[in-house]
Amino acid sequence: MSYVDEVLAKLKEKNASEPEFLQAAEEVLDSLRPVIDANEELYKKEALLERICEPERQVKFRVPWVDDEGNVQVNTGYRVEFNSAIGPYKGGLRLHPSVNIGIIKFLGFEQIFKNSLTSLPIGGGKGGSDFDPKGKSDREVMAFCQSFMSELYRHIGADTDVPAGDIGTGAREIGYMFGQYKKLTNKFEGVLTGKGLTYGGSLARTEATGYGLLYITNELFKDHGDSLDGKTVVISGAGNVAIYATQKAQQLGAKVVTCSDSTGWIYDPEGIDVELLKEVKEVKRERLTAYAEARPSAEYHEGRGVWQIKCDVALPCATQNELDIEDAKQLVANGCKAVCEGANMPTTLEATKYLQENDVWFIGGKAANAGGVATSALEMSQNSERLSWTFEEVDSKLQGIMANIYKNISEAAKKYGHEGDYVMGANIAGFEKVAEAMLSQGVV
Ligand code: NDP
Q1: Rounded to two decimals, what is the model's pTM?
Q2: Which residues have C-beta within 8 Å of that of residue 333, sequence separation ≥ 6?
Q3: How far apart are CA 315 and CA 441, in angstroms?
Q4: Banded pLDDT at 14 (limits 50, 70, 90)
Q5: What is the mean pLDDT of the chain?
Q6: Residues with CB under 6 A from ligand 1
Q7: Percentage, residues of the chain above pLDDT 70
Q8: Residue 74: CA atoms inside 13 Å, Cβ hemisphere, count?
Q9: Widest CA span of the chain, in angstroms?
C-alpha cells in the first residue's frame, strides 16, 4: 500500500463522522501523489502527512447569550488552529446552523494550502459556530458575538491567530467581535480582518474574494487565447463573494444571468442588476423574491437550479457540495468552458472529475478564492505599519497575487506532467512550501 493510501485509510478510521473533512483530505492527498511518491521515504519517516492532517490545536466552547425575549440560548463555538508552519493561523469564522467540527476541519485544512498559495506568510485555521444570524436582531447578534469572543480572545492574537469573516460573518459581526476583544485585552491590534474602514479595515477587502475570482478566471482565458468579454456567466450565491464576482465579471465585459440563496434562485437574461442585488442582500437583508419583485426581466424559482442555464463560465459562490454530478453533466451538455470556485469545495469530487474529463477548465477554490485571504494578509500588513493603502494600491496588489497564483498552479501541474490540471497544480504548489517549512522546523 502506498504512503498516501495508508494515511487515507487511517484518516477514514479516525474521522469517520467528519465526511467533509475526509472529502477535502482525499482530494488533496490524491492529487499530491506525484510529489509524495517522489519523496515517500523522507515524508514517511517524518510522518509528514499524518502531521499535516492533524490540527495543531482545536478548541470547542460554550457560547451562552440572551435573546430579545429574555431566554438564554446556547450555541457551540469552534476554532481549529490547523497549521502554523509558514505564519500565524489565518482563516474565517463561519456562523451557520450547519457548522460542526468536521466542517470547520475541512475548511481549516483547505486554508493551509490556499494561504500558502498566496505567497504571503500565513498559516491555516478556521472557526465558527452553529449560531444563525439570519432573522436575529442587531442586539441578539451583538450578544452572541460578545459571548463568542469572551472565550475566543484567549486563543487568538495579531501574531498568533487572526480570524476573519466567512458565511454569516460580515462587517457587523466582525465589528462586535473586535469591540469585545479590545475591551477584554485592552489592546487595539490587527487581531481580526474584514474590519470596518474607520478602525483598521482595508479598502478592497470587501470586494477581494469576488474580484480575485474574476482576476484568476481572466488569466485562465487569456492563457487560452480567449477573454471574458461577451461571455455568459452563471453564479450561485448572493452573498459577499457572489455580489463582487458579479460586479467584476460585468466590468470585464461578461453577462452574469443568475444568482441564488438558500431558498431559491434568479434567472435574469438581461444581466443581474448588481446595485439592486446589493440593496436587497446587503442593506435590507431580504430574500431574492424582493429582487424579482423589483426587476421585471427576472424570474424567481424556488429550490436550486442555476447550473441548468446555458453558459460559458460557471462560478459557484455559495457553499460546499452545491454542484454535483448531474449539474456537471448539464454544464458540459450546455457547452460550458470553465468552472472556477468562489466558494470552498462547492463541487463534489465526482463532479470535478467529470468536468476535467470533459475538458472543462477547472480551478478549485483553494486558488480561485484565495484573493480574500490574500487581502486579509494585506490588511494585517497595514495594521502592523499603522498605515492605510488606497483602494487602487490594494486592488493592484490583489491582481498581481492572483496572476501569480495562476502562473504557479499552471507551472506546478506542468512540472509533474499534468498540464491543465489546476486542482493538482494548486495542491502541489501550496503543499511544497508548507512541507519544506515543516521539515525545517523539526517534529513539533
Ligand atoms: P455569505 O454569507 O455572504 O453568502 C453566502 C451565500 O450562499 C448566501 O447567498 C447564502 O444564502 C448562500 N448559502 C449559504 N449556505 C447555503 C446552503 N447551505 N445552501 C444554499 N445556499 C447557501 O458568504 P460568503 O459570500 O462570504 O461565502 C460564500 C462561500 O465563499 C463560502 O464557501 C465561503 O467559505 C467562501 N469564501 C468566502 C470568502 C470571503 O472573503 N467572504 C473567502 C474565501 C472563500 P442565504 O443568504 O439564504 O443563506
Answers
A1: 0.93
A2: none
A3: 38
A4: very high
A5: 97
A6: 165-168, 209, 237-242, 261-263, 317-319, 342-344, 369, 372
A7: 100
A8: 2
A9: 64
